[in-house]
C-alpha cells in the first residue's frame, strides 16, 4: 500500500511560494546549490593545498631533523640548484615525450573507432581501451618490470626477430642508459605510454566523432589528396581532442612517483623526490617546495592547451 504525506495547507503554500520565488531567480538558485560543494572543495582541497605550500617557506634543521616555522626562501632557491634543476628537467622532458608518443599512437586507433566502427564493434573497442584502466596501477607497473627484464618476454621476442643488436645499440645511446629495458629510460618511457595511452585515445575519439563526414566528402570533391585532407581538415579539427588528452598524459607523468622507482635508471623524478623528502627524510618544507613545481608547470600547460580548444573537447 502506497502512503503519501499530506502537508498542511499553510505549509504547502509556503513551500510553493518559496519554490516559485527561487524559480524566478535562477542565478540565486544555482548559487545556493553550488555553495555547499564549493565550501567543501575550498576547505578540504584548497585549504590543505595552501597549507602545504605555506610549509615550503618553513625551515628544516639538518642536524636535529626538525621543522621550525621560521620563514625562509631557501627551499625555493634550492630548486634552482643543478641537482634539483636536473630532476625538474628530467621529469618535464619525460612528460612531453610521453604526451607526444601517446598522441601518435592514439590517433589511428581513435580515428578507426570514430569513423569505421558502430554498435557492438564500437562497444568492443571502448571496452578494450578502458580495460587496462580497470587493473591495479601497481600490478601493471610490476608486470612491466617482468616484461622488460633481461630474460623477460620483450627481450625474448626481440631475440627471435634478430633485433637484439639493435636493442643493445639503443641501450648504449646517450640519455637512454641501462643494461636492460627495465633499467633504462626507454623502458620507463614505454611503461608511461602504456599506462596513460587510454587517457589520450578517448578524447581524440570524441573529437573525431564530431567531425562531419560532409567535410571529408567536400575535400575529396575539390580534388584534395588523402594527405591534404588529413593535414587541412582532419588534423585541425582533432587538435582540441589531442590537447585535451595531453592534459592527462602530461600531468599524470609529471606527478608520478611509482614508475620511476620500479622502472628505469637511478634518478629522481619530481614525484619520487617529494616522496623521498617527506617520507624518508622528513623534510616537509623541501617536499612542499617541490610540490610547487608541477603546479606551476601544469598551470602554464593548461594556459597553452586552452588556446588549442582543449577544454571544449573534454
Structure, described:
The protein is built from 15 helices and two strands. It is mainly alpha-helical and 314 residues long. The protein is flat, with a radius of gyration of 26 Å.
Keywords:
314 residues, mainly alpha, MetI-like fold, 2 domains, flat
Q: Biggest sheet, strands in spatial order?
A: 1-2
- For the record, the CATH class of the largest domain is Mainly Alpha
Please count the helical segments. Answer: 15
Overall tally of structural domains: 2
Query: Main beta sheet: strand number and arrangement?
Result: 2 strands, antiparallel
CATH topology of the largest domain: MetI-like fold
Short description, anyone?
The protein has two domains: 45 residues, no CATH class; 240 residues, Orthogonal Bundle (MetI-like fold). It is flat and about 85 Å long. Helices cover 75% and strands 2% of the residues.
Give the topology.
Blueprint: H1 9-23, H2 26-55, E1 59-61, E2 66-68, H3 74-78, H4 82-116, H5 120-134, H6 137-147, H7 153-160, H8 164-171, H9 185-209, H10 213-221, H11 226-255, H12 259-262, H13 270-281, H14 284-307, H15 310-313
Antiparallel strand pairs: 1-2
